[in-house]
């Protein structure tokens, strides 16, 4: 267990290291930056309340991302959330190529969108994603392959070209 100072330092370090990744994961689920930031805050509040002890920094990051996913799913189940508006079309602050790719990724079904985000944007391996999403590695590989195929159909590309996100 932590004393107060150690807990505060641990949370501060995690906030610096992982908050952007957590917000991106939540955004992949919720498609709204404000809601994604709220989920990240809720996760850090849970961190403070539960005071988990981690084996290493990878274990800590995996716990934070898994908790972010769970809290994002809970928010999606909430009745007030279902009556909200979709992603705004104005993402003009992004370069044109990124805007098109982001819209295409966000338009994917959740089972393809989340693994693609974790793999390409967060740098997780298929095995790590399988642990985070509580699925078999073969299933995650299938989701990634199908998601890439759907993106290729939407965005286009050369026949032998791989999609680079």
UniProtKB/TrEMBL annotation:
InterPro entries for this protein: RNA_pol_sigma-70-like (IPR039425), RNA_pol_sigma-70_dom (IPR014284), RNA_pol_sigma70_r2 (IPR007627), RNA_pol_sigma70_r4_t2 (IPR013249), RNA_pol_sigma_r2 (IPR013325), RNA_pol_sigma_r3/r4-like (IPR013324), WH-like_DNA-bd_sf (IPR036388)
Record has Transcription regulation as a keyword: yes
GO biological process: DNA-templated transcription initiation
Keyword Amino-acid biosynthesis: no
Start and end residues of each RNA polymerase sigma factor 70 region 4 type domain: 100-151
Signal peptide range: none
Stretches of the chain forming a coiled coil according to its record: none
Residues covered by the RNA polymerase sigma-70 region domain: 18-78
GO molecular-function terms, A-Z: DNA binding; sigma factor activity
Alphabetic keyword roster: Sigma factor, Transcription, Transcription regulation
Family statement drawn from the similarity comment of this UniProt entry: Belongs to the sigma-70 factor family. ECF subfamily.
Protein name: Sigma-70 family RNA polymerase sigma factor
């Amino acid at each position: 267990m932590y004393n107060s100072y150690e807990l505060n330092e641990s949370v501060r370090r995690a906030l610096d290291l992982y908050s952007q990744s957590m917000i991106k994961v939540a955004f992949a689920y919720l498609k709204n930056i404000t809601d994604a930031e709220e989920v990240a805050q809720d996760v850090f509040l849970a961190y403070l309340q539960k005071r988990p002890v981690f084996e290493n920094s990878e274990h800590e990051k995996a716990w934070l991302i898994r908790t972010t996913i769970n809290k994002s799913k809970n928010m999606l189940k909430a009745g007030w959330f279902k009556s909200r508006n979709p992603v705004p079309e104005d993402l003009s602050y992004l370069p044109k190529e990124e805007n098109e790719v982001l819209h295409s990724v966000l338009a994917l079904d959740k089972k393809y969108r989340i693994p693609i985000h974790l793999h390409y944007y967060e740098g997780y391996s298929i095995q790590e994603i399988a642990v985070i999403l509580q699925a078999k590695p073969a299933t995650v590989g299938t989701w990634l392959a199908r998601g890439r195929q759907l993106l290729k159909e939407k965005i286009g590309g050369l026949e032998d070209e791989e999609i680079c996100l």
